[in-house]
Amino acid sequence: MRAKQQFTLPPAPDLSAEITAQADGFARVCGIDEAGRGPLAGPVVAAAVVLPTGYELPGLNDSKKLTARRREQLFEQLMADPQVHKCIATATVAEIDELNILRATHLAMARAAQGLEPQPDFCLIDGLPVPGFPLPSTNLVKGDARSLSIAAASVLAKVTRDRYMCKLAAEYPQYGFERHAGYGTKAHLQAIKQYGITPHHRRSFAPVAQMELPLGL
Asked: Cα 49–127–18 angle (5° rounding)?
């Protein structure tokens, strides 16, 4: 199954890509998405989701198009539904610094897909191609706006990571992680200059590396 380079986005994500893969002989199709490639701190989180045939969840969409409150509501509904098979996985800051962010993201995605029980026959991955992915797969550019299972994965990954960053905020209140989730905002960069970096900052990312500061509080 090959992703088309030219396409028209549907009004909302649907199951067309999943149905196409199933018509090609792949019975168990999952959607994969990630959150946290761009921040200066925290892990990258990926989720893999297999939806039941004909699944519907009003309002489910690309997580970037949803309010934080709506994402939380959809997260709880997806997590509580036993018919929705899901796995959430991470790549740590240490892995990001060792591998680079792209390879660490692919690692988190592979962990999420392989963590599904049973494992999927085919994976729809949001974004660009993932070379060497351990399971049969294709990429879908803007997949979180096209595929319902990728949209579900985007919500699970985003909310999981945001909750994690809120926990870090309680441990490191001076950095404001609960507001910017580790992204390089002006306030975050100012906090790094004032307090140094934490063990949760990505030393391989230029704005952090260039400061050459010791570990913070």
From this structure: 40
Domain 16-161 superfamily per CATH: Ribonuclease H-like superfamily/Ribonuclease H (3.30.420.10)
Nearest to 152 by CA among 89, 90, 75, 70: 75
Is 116 in contact with 73 (CB distance < 8 Å)?
no
The span from the CA of 90 to the CA of 179, in Å, is: 21
Task: Summarize pLDDT for 16-63 with one digit per residue, the tens.
Answer: 999 999 999 999 999 999 999 999 999 999 999 999 999 999 999 999
pTM given for the model: 0.92
> CA-to-CA distance for 15 and 58, rounded, in angstroms?
14
Q: Where are the beta strands (DSSP E) in the chain?
A: 29-35, 44-50, 85-91, 122-126, 137-140
